[in-house]
Specification:
The complex is a heterodimer of chains A (65) and B (247). Chain A has 65 residues and is mostly helical. Chain A contains two helices and no strands. The chains are: A mainly alpha (65), B mainly alpha (247).
């Protein structure tokens, strides 16, 4: 497939809004999921490092059974 | 000798480092496959005779729709195993799969709407394929909301499993909807029974993107299940040792 120029490529034969609207939202969601996953890992690690200990060395909190 | 004890990895403690080692491989594979798929999709595959360039949405629409159904089946499978065998890790896997499955369901609907507008003249119709896919999104969101609403994780696992297993009935409905009912949505271009009805390069690009999305899902779900394991096993000695070693 030879597009000839960048403007032809972005235009997508007049369907640019639909094609790039699909791809942009897909990329946005995937990148957001990756950021949220990294944040979740960071936040649980910080929580675990901060909390008081039980006799196993694990976290002692209100749900301890 | 020479056999692997697979049950060893059914414990969160042994699965946690294994998942950590696998994630980078799946992530790299996802990136390479998606780049390759996009290259074929935009630079090799020709313009469609009927739809012009609008058809290029297919390279994410179909893989996202496949993942939305496949992830649901895997989620229901692990939820069911967790319910029957009472294995903690199985239920954690189910919980970890739901957000990624919901994301792909939304993306299938979103890209479908953006594809429907130029080709059918409408963003949305209440036909069997679209409606059953929307129900799939509600099943994922319902599963997540139900689990989030129950404080005791073991009870949340059980309640979620019942919902997930009930919802499995929707998957064949989505898949066969284009055969069972008259719908605006086109029939399957790729099926197990017949030869594909599309150009080879289009098909190749779509399959490679589907593999890329699959690898992405594996990386994302394994990353999420690692956080869930740490959250749920926070009282244990091995988690304390892991955190201690990371300080």
């Amino acid at each position: 497939m030879n597009w000839g120029s960048w403007s032809n490529f972005w235009a997508m034969g007049g369907y640019g809004l639909y094609v790039w609207g699909s791809y942009a939202v897909t990329v946005l969601f995937m990148l957001t999921e990756i950021v949220l996953l990294l944040q979740r890992k960071k936040s649980i690690m910080q929580f675990l490092a901060r909390m008081p200990r039980n006799h196993y060395g694990g976290v002692k909190d209100e749900t301890e059974t | 000798m020479g056999t692997i004890n697979w049950f060893k990895y059914s414990s969160p403690q042994t699965f946690f480092p294994l998942a950590g080692r696998l994630i980078p491989w799946f992530a790299v594979l996802a990136l390479v496959l998606c780049m390759w798929g996009l290259y074929i999709g935009f630079l090799v595959a020709p313009t469609d005779a009927q739809q012009g360039e609008a058809y290029r949405i297919i390279f994410i629409h179909v893989p996202a729709a496949w993942m939305s159904m496949f992830i649901y089946l895997v989620m229901a499978f692990w939820a069911g195993i967790g319910l029957v065998l009472n294995t903690r890790l199985s239920s954690m896997m189910a919980t970890a799969l739901a957000p990624t499955g919901a994301m792909f369901t939304f993306l299938a609907l979103w890209t479908g709407a953006l594809w429907g507008k130029p080709t059918w003249g409408t963003w949305w119709v209440w036909d069997a394929r679209l409606t059953s896919e929307l129900i799939l999104l509600f099943l994922y969101l319902g599963f997540m909301a139900l689990q989030a609403a129950i404080d005791d994780p073991r009870r949340a696992d059980k309640a979620g499993a019942v919902l997930a297993l009930t919802g499995v009935v929707n998957i064949p409905i989505i898949y066969f909807s284009v055969k069972w009912w008259n719908t605006l949505h086109q029939g399957a271009s790729v099926s197990l029974m017949a030869a594909p009805t599309m150009a080879k390069t289009m098909l190749l690009g779509m399959l490679i993107m589907a593999l890329g999305f699959w690898m992405y899902s594996l990386a994302a779900v394994l990353a999420r299940v690692r956080s869930i394991i740490l959250e749920r096993e926070r009282h244990t000695e091995w988690v304390a040792e892991y955190v201690g070693a990371r300080k």
